[in-house]
Structures are given as structure tokens and as C-alpha cells.
Amino acid sequence: MALIFFGTPQFAVPSLKALIDAKEDIALVVTQPDKVKGRGHILSAPPVKELALSNGIMIMQPEKIKDENFYRELKSVYPEFIIVVAYGKILPKEILDMPKFGCINVHASLLPKY
Fold this sequence. Notes:
By secondary structure, this protein is of the alpha/beta class. Helix content is 26%, strand content 25%.
């Protein structure tokens, strides 16, 4: 069952690791672009990217989530599930409607009504 995992910070790493350990078919990991950090202004990869790369999982780091090329790439995976853990952006309806069996979202705090 092809999965797409959306996540960025350290909070998302245990969820991705659990999927990897369970030998789930993670076709793609989507994470935020690398960012400059610290006083040395060092370009740093998100923790989720590091874990995905160390496990040979394909990654994408779109600058804009509402982009036709990005949508086409996601569709080409034919995802059956999308799992989102602290990705950092609200997924548009086009992405939420993409997987055959839907999306699961894990969030670290209570979400507002909308």
C-alpha cells in the first residue's frame, strides 16, 4: 500500500520511524525546504528529511504546496494513504482528495475549529 508521508520537525520523526520499522511502503516523503539556522547561518535539513534519506526514501521539498507540477508528482505515486505529522502547512483539497483511502493527520496540540 503506497504511502506519502508529510512531516518536517523532530516531532514527526518517531511516526516516520514507526512506519519504516513496520516495513510500510513509503513511496515518498514530503518535507519543508532546508533552512538557514544558527549564528553561522548554516543550511540545515529538516529531521524528517535526514531520516528519509538515511533509509533510501525519495523526498520532495516544494517551495509552494499549491503547484501543478507538485500535484502531478504526488499523483504519479498513486498514494493509497497520506499521513501528515507536523508538516507545517495546510494541505489543499486537491491533495487531501488524492489518496484512495484518505489522509491521517497527527497534530501536537488541539486544533482550532477551522
